[in-house]
Amino acid sequence: MNQATYDFIVVGAGSAGCVLANRLTENGKYRVLLLEAGPQDRYLWIHIPIGYGKTMFHKVYNWGFYTEPEATTNHRKIYWPRGRGLGGSSSINGLIFVRGQQQDYDHWESLGNRGWGWKDVLPYFIRSEHNTRGASAYHGADGPLWCSDIGEPHELMEAIIRGANELGVPRNDDFNGATQEGVGYYQLFTRNGWRCSTASAYLRPAVKRANLRVETDALVTRVLFDGRRAVGVRYQQGGRSLEARAAGEVILAAGAIQSPQLLQLSGIGEGRFLASMGVPVVRDLPGVGNNLSDHLQLRVMYKVAKPITTNDDLRTLSGRARIGLKWLLFRKGPLAMGINQGGMFARILPESASPDIQFHFATLSADLAGARPHPWSGCTFSVCQLRPESRGTVMIRSRDAQEPPAIRPNYLSAEADRRCAVEALKFTRRLAAAQPLAPYLVQEYRPGAQVRTDEELLEFARQYGATIFHPSGTCKMGSDPAAVVDQRLRVNGIAGLRVADCSVMPTLVSGNTNAPVVMIAEKASALILEDAAMQ
Ligand SMILES: Cc1cc2nc3c(=O)[nH]c(=O)nc-3n(C[C@H](O)[C@H](O)[C@H](O)COP(=O)(O)OP(=O)(O)OC[C@H]3O[C@@H](n4cnc5c(N)ncnc54)[C@H](O)[C@@H]3O)c2cc1C
After folding, report:
1. With a 6 A CB cut-off, is 34 part of the ligand 1 pocket?
2. Per the omega criterion (within 30 degrees of 0), is the bond before 447 cis?
């Protein structure tokens, strides 16, 4: 195979990039180069679900970004993990399978994005999915991405479900079925107790194909142009600067932070801003890096009366040996689960027609998500607003591709978001006070009983709110002046260049983002192949 010219070059082997690499090489007609800045995914803790705690602050497998200090969150720099290496963030994420609400996609369509309504995207969700429950009107059983039940009820989780029922929230055994509203256990991206990243689901089966070349430790620094056509990329690997040419297209799948960064470094972005950075302007596209949207999680933690939490399992050598053995023998138990076991989608604002908050329930507690668990029995009720109105930015600081861009999420800047944060915290307390939880929850550790008024609750959100890892929207799809890509994900005004990852979401989906990104990449692959067949 000619090493320098390809039909398609995919930048980033994350959730989206691995899907694209597989689907674009499937028919054998096209030569594809997949470039990934990070390494192979050979670290064992990537593949064992509870390894989430080990990769959260890992220096190699995690980009470990920080946001800029902002007044809305008390001038804190907030930690933003992002996966680095094959599988990208799907190799380090919390494994929770949620697609969002049907209304999210119908909303995208109502914004002018034809082909992205719920009826249009459902077939791509189904195509991607291997659900261990089997196929149904909402689920696939033949796709590469495994979604499995946790399969083990937990005493505390059962009490939470009964508590939520008392507040009028029904049990829901399928958040990806007919309706999202309700409380229950999550399904996880696991296959027989192992993490099912997109690298293992999509890339591994494709990697032996003669028409796919995968390069790791290859940081793309620029898209190369011939006029207004993308013709290749420049990348750094092993201390060398290399170039690869694309006869067809360059597809950016570097994620919601680095796809806009790469566009800006390549001269696509707001013209005056690029000029101020010393970047020659290829296309003045003001939307690049704007419209950043994320879910802000508020983690309410409790001390638990019984030693039944994962804190207890992990505290002692015998506990660790027991759960280790359980995983080795049966591929079950806390090691097979990541951190969060159950969830809830509920409605708290009067104006909301569908659930506006999501809970992640963990039978574990730690001061920071993914950090060392507390030395006492503890649990966490993490709550986030599903459709925040606050918008932020991702902007380069220099022409150096190695330098992380400035990330400004601007959390809690919208009035509705502040109101939702306060109401969400009050609702969490009502849940904790429900009778079925009385035997379990002994003390609210954080925020703590001293935090009482609405002002104090909002101050807690400003002081402790953190990301639940769903940045999106920074190269948004649409037809308005702020849009970066069109409904076929082509960069506006540039030939041969698309973006296909979390950054193209016009609005953030009401849930976790891995399954939606996989769907976006499945659909993007179909669009790319369709267009290539017309050439
Ligand atoms: C800690 C954490 C927990 C999460 N938990 C969940 C969860 O439980 N459920 C869920 O659904 N979602 C979860 N998410 C979110 C979800 O995983 C992401 O939204 C999704 O993986 C994003 O996919 P992506 O393809 O847009 O980007 P990524 O998967 O981040 O992929 C981008 C890839 O591009 C590479 N790259 C970047 N820049 C360059 C460059 N210049 N050159 C070459 N390569 C480059 C990166 O190294 C990376 O591999 C979580 C995310 C994190 C970080």
Report:
1. no
2. yes
